[in-house]
């Protein structure tokens, strides 16, 4: 069985992934049932060392979160400043 997940990555993270062409920052991914948030990060080809945290349906989630049909995932970059 497959499920669809809406992924938002923002300009910085989406720009690092070949899976987000032409400046797109939002994309629907079709993945296998049983896919975790960590798996999705790899599928979306977003470098994990640039991700500060992720939220699923508005709640912070860890890489072991088991994705469900229709989840909305947002990957947030590390924020640096001085």
UniProtKB/TrEMBL annotation:
InterPro entries documented for this protein: Beta-grasp_dom_sf (IPR012675), Mopterin_synth/thiamin_S_b (IPR016155), ThiS/MoaD-like (IPR003749)
Pfam families attached to this UniProt entry: ThiS (PF02597)
Protein name: Molybdenum cofactor biosynthesis protein MoaD
């Amino acid at each position: 069985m497959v499920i669809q997940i809406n992924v938002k990555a923002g300009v910085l993270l989406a720009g690092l992934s070949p899976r987000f062409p032409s400046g797109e920052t939002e994309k629907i991914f079709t993945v296998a049932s049983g896919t975790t948030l960590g798996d999705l990060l790899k599928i979306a080809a977003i470098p994990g060392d640039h991700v500060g945290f992720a939220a699923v349906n508005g709640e912070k989630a860890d890489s072991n979160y088991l994705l469900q049909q229709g989840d909305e995932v947002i990957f947030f970059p590390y924020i640096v400043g001085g």
